[in-house]
């Protein structure tokens, strides 16, 4: 009889733990959504879109952006609430409009997607994000050929198109950052057993 009560108590404890964990995950996701929206709106307000020289009517008189003259330059940042952002990311196919934090860390990923590697200027940028509903959940559903737009904090726009979707193990760090892709965006699945990456070209 005592053993039965112990099992019942243990079962109740497990159920309670699951409820608490679920509640924490929901709270964390909502906090991330709020932080992302605040940063995205702040960046969008402060940034003017700059036209590329080749599409300006009088290209000879156009000011050439610094990143074209010096692709290896550091990406400029804009600070919002103490966090440095390098720009914004849009994936219209799944309704994503998000800010991108300059450098990745686990605490930063709880606010918004982060630059994991590379630069938009050297055509090798990798962006990581959690699979929160408001972040990269649904990334695997983005069809090939879909448009992806990154805008830096100077207003320069970089337009990409999805070329491939890959599923990689969590340890595939080299595979995630290698290759000839102009942009890679990745997240993990719900259990963290694999990563989903979309590979994009200009």
The unreliable regions are 9-14, 16-25
Question: What do we call the CATH homologous superfamily?
Answer: Sortase
> Please, how many helices?
4
Question: What sort of overall outline do the alpha carbons produce when their principal axes are compared?
Answer: globular
Portion in strands: 25-35%
N→C terminal distance: 68 Å
Q: Can you offer a commentary on this structure?
A:
This protein is an alpha+beta fold. It has a single domain (2-201), classed as Sortase, Chain: A. It is 29% helix and 28% strand. It has helices at residues 2-46, 66-69, 106-109, 173-177, and strands at 78-80, 83-91, 96-101, 114-117, 125-128, 147-152, 157-168, 183-188, 195-201. Strands 1, 2, 3, 4, 5, 6, 7, 8 and 9 form a nine-stranded mixed β-sheet that branches. The longest helix is centred in the N-terminal third of the chain and has 45 residues, at 2-46. The N and C termini lie far apart (68 Å).
What does the secondary structure layout of this molecule look like, with pairings?
Blueprint lengths: L1 H45 L19 H4 L8 E3 L2 E9 L4 E6 L4 H4 L4 E4 L7 E4 L18 E6 L4 E12 L4 H5 L5 E6 L6 E7 L1
Parallel strand pairs: 5-8
Antiparallel strand pairs: 1-2, 2-3, 2-6, 4-5, 6-7, 7-9, 8-9
């Amino acid at each position: 009889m005592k053993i039965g009560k112990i099992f019942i108590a243990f079962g109740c404890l497990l159920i309670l733990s699951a409820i608490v964990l679920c509640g924490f995950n929901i709270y964390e996701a909502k906090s991330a959504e709020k932080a992302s929206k605040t940063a995205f709106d702040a960046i969008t307000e402060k940034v003017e879109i700059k036209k590329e020289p080749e599409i300006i009517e009088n290209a000879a008189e156009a000011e050439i952006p610094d990143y074209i003259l010096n692709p290896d330059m550091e990406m400029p940042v804009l600070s919002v609430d103490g966090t440095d952002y390098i720009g914004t990311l849009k994936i219209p196919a799944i309704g994503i409009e998000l800010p991108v934090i300059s450098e990745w860390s686990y605490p930063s990923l709880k606010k918004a997607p982060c630059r994991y590697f590379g630069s938009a200027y050297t055509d090798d940028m990798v962006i990581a994000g959690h699979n929160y509903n408001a972040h990269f959940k649904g990334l695997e559903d983005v069809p090939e050929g879909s448009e992806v737009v990154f805008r830096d904090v100077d207003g320069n726009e970089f337009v990409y198109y999805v070329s491939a979707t890959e599923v990689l193990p969590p340890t595939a760090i080299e595979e995630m950052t290698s290759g000839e892709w102009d942009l890679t965006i990745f997240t993990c699945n719900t259990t963290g057993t694999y990563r989903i990456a979309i590979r994009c070209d200009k």
